[in-house]
């Protein structure tokens, strides 16, 4: 094992790195920090993963069976992120560590190329951005996605990407080339357009306006793009006016579908969100306790109401109903635009 502290200030990465080492079964973990404004305060744990195609557990309700996740942790730092819990498996905390200590699987492209070439691989749909965002800031430096997209394209292997990162536009020509060979599904996550709410609850992400700009650029390049309207945050982004503003903006951006998903709060995200709510909206603490007192999900009647409202608005603005996710588990050439439109699901928030 080698610890390589390039800037001399990442000593505190040692414990977490050992967790990552145990998890990935790697021989080498390199910890780096970069003294540039966009990476200030972020520590990267570079690992060489043993496998990169992950099978989604059989009990999952997700419409895909295989995922690729080149990163763990996400500097987009959404307060509500369901993936926070996964950082605890690395011996890291689900709050600040999740936002600022990012595991990078530096061998992801070469490993994927090898696994796709295996005679055992059936060519099933591969979903990305389903755990953490593959176009988070780290991707600007590590540039893993071009190799990953290239590997999938070489095999004409269908895939989809869900992201909040406008960095996806860097790879537009690659995505367009892949779309000529196989089914490529792209969804951008935009839960609301309220700039004040965005700054506090999704502090590391490109603005909703910038994300909708990415939807427009993708559409203009001939790549159909859906919007996952996630999350709709009770009492903060769910008024009829807010829903209308968001769906109108999504339609104007040229999205082919809009799929609403109400906030859910599982352990890991729940505590972090509760502390944020207490700080920024203390008057809502009691209402949230009632709404999420029974578990991670808002009541079904509330989820149905939001879904109905968004679908009605989508019809009004000419987007049409949310396109159902079409990938069959284990199937070929299927491209889901996002998760199922209704009800509690084992989550994707990208
Ligand atoms: S919700 Fe998506 S973009 Fe936000 S922190 Fe989680 S993985 Fe990153």
From TrEMBL:
<feature type="compositionally biased region" description="Low complexity">
    <location>
        <begin position="321"/>
        <end position="336"/>
    </location>
</feature>
<feature type="domain" description="Radical SAM core">
    <location>
        <begin position="60"/>
        <end position="308"/>
    </location>
</feature>
<keyword id="KW-0408">Iron</keyword>
<dbReference type="InterPro" id="IPR007197">
    <property type="entry name" value="rSAM"/>
</dbReference>
<protein>
    <submittedName>
        <fullName>Rv2578c family radical SAM protein</fullName>
    </submittedName>
</protein>
<dbReference type="InterPro" id="IPR040086">
    <property type="entry name" value="MJ0683-like"/>
</dbReference>
<feature type="region of interest" description="Disordered">
    <location>
        <begin position="321"/>
        <end position="350"/>
    </location>
</feature>
<dbReference type="InterPro" id="IPR058240">
    <property type="entry name" value="rSAM_sf"/>
</dbReference>
<dbReference type="Pfam" id="PF04055">
    <property type="entry name" value="Radical_SAM"/>
</dbReference>
<keyword id="KW-0479">Metal-binding</keyword>
<keyword id="KW-0411">Iron-sulfur</keyword>
